[in-house]
Write a structure and sequence with these properties.
Layout: H1 11-22, E1 30-32, H2 39-42, E2 47-50, H3 56-61, E3 64-65, H4 74-85
Parallel strand pairs: 1-2, 2-3
């Protein structure tokens, strides 16, 4: 899926739109957020992740906080976590 929304003020509304269009449950969504505008979405998704430099409110809402900083392997760490939880990690 190649969906990009930039400059969004109501991220929860965009989450609803994407889930509706793609026929996805919010519980099946993994989301990475690091600031206050991300918290409403972090509170609704199945896997809420943040980076260690995120705002305290985002860290508190996250299910997981990566060891890696944003831009330094955080997304890879989240992907590996998901694949490992599904027994699909091949290394």
């Amino acid at each position: 899926i190649n969906i990009v929304h930039q400059g969004v003020s109501d991220k929860s509304l965009v989450l609803d739109q994407i889930c509706s269009e793609q026929k996805l449950a919010t519980e099946s969504i993994a989301y990475v957020g690091d600031d206050a505008p991300d918290v409403p979405v972090l509170m609704r998704v199945g896997l809420a992740a943040s980076v260690p430099t995120g705002h305290r409110c985002a860290l508190d809402a996250a299910h997981m906080i990566t060891d890696a900083q944003g831009g330094y392997g955080a997304v890879r760490e989240i992907i590996d976590f998901i694949l490992a939880s599904q027994n699909k990690l091949s290394y």
